[in-house]
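Running this now, will post back.
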Amino acid sequence: MSTREHDVVVVGAGTAGCYAAATVAGAGYDVALVERKSETEAGHIACGDALKGSDAFPTAIPRSRIEASMTNTDVDHGRFELPEHDTVVEIPIPGELAVLDRWEYGRQLIAGAEDAGAEIHYDTVVQDVVQPNGRIEGVRAIRKGEPIEYSAEVVIDGAGALSILQDRADLSEATFDTNVTYSQFSSAYREIVEVEEPVEWEDALVFKPTERAAGYLWYFPRTSTEINAGVGFQMTEEPMQLVDDLKRDLRSRSEFRNARVTDKLGAALPTRRPYDSAVAPGMVAVGDSAGHVNPTTGGGMAGAAYAGEYAGEEIVASLESGDRSEEALWNYNERVMEHFGGRFAALDVYNVMSTAVETDDLMGLLAALPGQKLSDALYSGSADIGWKLKLQAAVKSYGYWGVIWTFYQTKQLADELLEHYEAYPSSPEGLAAWQRERDALMDRIYETTGAEAKY
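Update: finished.
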């Protein structure tokens, strides 16, 4: 087996991995970015292609690198189609939004990491970690059919949802979050569809519930005639049944008559709160590998980019100090929780609630709430609704008052949870006590919603 030595090895050339690699390499360190796909296929990832906050990405990879992949920058709202209620709910989406060509975006990210000095290793499938004395010191892989070992001061896990690195590493003595199960993840399938005439909703992200509560359809316009059509569903559902739901809906929509499918792809993604800790001695997890996805929308690119840059900056500091411990890397956890982790954890409360609510009741609630307040709930984790709007919603939603009352109670608990995340501990020693308080709050959430425990 051949061996290579680097300061840092990054596993996975997705958004988080590329930003992490660019950050560390840009500081002058030797970085290997290993990617299981070939150079031709790298960057080809199943995704909804909607990028929220495209105007505020971190700077490790220049925005100019990814601008060319943004094919539609005119999208400004979400369109929720609720056929059971014969209505469409339009909600604004805060911040700058772009729909992009995800493959081109991926290629540009890899090029950006390479520009910063990272060494890209394609056709490299990681199979194990190197962990002789508790600290992770590298990974073992097969590269172009040959075994290879990468030795590193720090390993960055950007391998995606349900990462093999976390399966192989002994994390029993670390704070790293191992409370991870399949029920906390979703699968997604999408097709790129070319239509003959421009769609009327080219400025909107279109969402539609499936016949089963655990799934939803989406139609995101890359351009007015190129649509990302997809379906997302919990791991507990039968995937092909839900893919059939997408195909039936495509056939029923007049705008897709005589359409041509140009690409098909599926993937898994976390629909859970961010990991309580994503650091272990010698290893940091970023992006999907650490649950850095908005659990209500599945949007993960912006969070992954920032997580990658934060991880890179904290790893550079650890390399300079010679300390690879959890304590030395802990500030990465704090930065993630402060920026978006707490908000995502609060949003996950609504996912918990949805598992205990009938689909029709949930759609009735969606139809009743004011669009701006729905936007606040989906993207900020909280939504304050005055008494006038409460009364209007109550009149409009006669027959769904029970679920609305549950929603308001759940919203209060989500606010409490967000406040608790604002007090995230400043060192590993404080994590256990913080978790006990959080878990007690989660017990109240399960009791209020009637949902089964998710964690």
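The mean pLDDT is 90. More later if anyone needs it.
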